[in-house]
């Protein structure tokens, strides 16, 4: 019996509730369904799928432009006893508020959620107080230069069980002279009392690493924008993907990140996905709670005969020795 199905660039996967069950709606054993870029997927077809696939616990929909809040609401209502993991992304008619409203039937059951931070409909609306009692994992996509602050206004202000958040930032900083506000908004995460892990993925952010033209901001100041407020968080584990300058093939940690991360009073584990200079890594030793630091994945140490100050094998060893030094009294 088919339990998991992923479809992309398909047409006619289901005709809808006005017709006899067909296509995906016949897969009664499905527990996980992913639909991407199906341009003819309508609300009626989605509702038909919810009637046929009554065991679905995981559902993701990406790039389906005809879906609306009404169709998604009916879909989640029909699957309110099983559906606990939902991803809604790049759907034209489903911004942050409409996506959350569509999930209202499973608000007290959902455990994992992804939405796009498109805030257009929040302007002028009163704060919506909603309790997402079982939500443990939240994933967000947001365009570069936008703020996280409207997150609580969208209806995600009360998530007592939330433990992990993943934030994907994407866009070209070179198209913007400077950020439109003082900070990205990580301070708003303090409303989640049990949030301990964060993935901040800025790998999709492109800007000027070294020299920005007059009137533009380089990546070091954008990094301050992204990370301001993290020092007030309850996080004890952070994965940070740095932004990049594709023109000079550089993806690295800058001084603002080193300084702000060193001030995180509860941070225990830090994973940096990018390059770093040794003297900036040493800033992190000022954080008395930090006990595990790694440069990971796309990081490759500079060769020993290189003259740049990027971390080399020897630099990594010196930092590791300093981090594990007996003179650092790290609380257990």
Automatic annotation (TrEMBL):
<protein>
    <recommendedName>
        <fullName>COI1 F-box domain-containing protein</fullName>
    </recommendedName>
</protein>
<dbReference type="InterPro" id="IPR032675">
    <property type="entry name" value="LRR_dom_sf"/>
</dbReference>
<dbReference type="GO" id="GO:0019005">
    <property type="term" value="C:SCF ubiquitin ligase complex"/>
</dbReference>
<dbReference type="GO" id="GO:0005634">
    <property type="term" value="C:nucleus"/>
</dbReference>
<dbReference type="GO" id="GO:0031146">
    <property type="term" value="P:SCF-dependent proteasomal ubiquitin-dependent protein catabolic process"/>
</dbReference>
<dbReference type="InterPro" id="IPR006553">
    <property type="entry name" value="Leu-rich_rpt_Cys-con_subtyp"/>
</dbReference>
